[in-house]
From TrEMBL:
It comes from Crocodylus porosus (Saltwater crocodile). Coiled coil: none annotated. The gene is NHP2. Its main location: nucleus. Belongs to the eukaryotic ribosomal protein eL8 family. This is H/ACA ribonucleoprotein complex subunit 2.
Length: 150
């Protein structure tokens, strides 16, 4: 019985939310391009938190897809560790067709947490708003500057 508790204690830190950016990169999908660097990932999380506070985010594949089709503008943030990739692999194509900026971040758990949810989420759209205009503008500029995959 003592060994079971010991192995659980060893496995716990790995499952904790405090995994570093590098540790999260291990679980990335092959389609996770353009991937936001660590600094931009942090900025996106902060922007998502501000947007969630003002209810200016769209969360989940169905909702984001619906509003992209309606022509809504914003930054689309996708989680790079979502499996199976078929769930959301059409979203980047939709973004490119409508000239919407998008970027991948390493963790769906962190993405859900930033949006104020207890559940992981694989895609979020941040809508522009004057309440967090500076943070949004900064993120928009950096996401647009990321190299688009061929």
């Amino acid at each position: 019985m003592g060994r079971e508790l010991e192995s659980e204690a060893l496995a716990e830190p790995e499952a904790g939310p405090e995994r570093t950016y590098r540790e999260q990169l291990v679980n990335l999908n092959p389609i996770a391009q353009p991937l936001a660097p660590r600094k931009l990932t942090r900025k996106l999380y902060k922007c998502i938190k501000k947007a969630a506070k003002h209810k200016q985010i769209r969360r989940g594949v169905k909702e984001v897809q619906k509003f992209i089709n309606k022509g809504e503008k914003g930054i689309v943030v996708l989680a790079g560790d979502t499996l199976p990739i078929e769930v959301y692999c059409h979203i980047p194509i939709m973004c490119e067709d409508r000239s919407l900026p998008y970027a991948y971040i390493p963790s769906k758990t962190d993405l859900g947490t930033a949006a104020g949810s207890k559940r992981p989420t694989c895609v979020i759209m941040i809508k522009p708003n004057e309440e967090y205009e500076e943070a949004y503008g900064e993120c928009l500029e950096e996401v647009t500057a990321l190299p688009v995959p061929l």
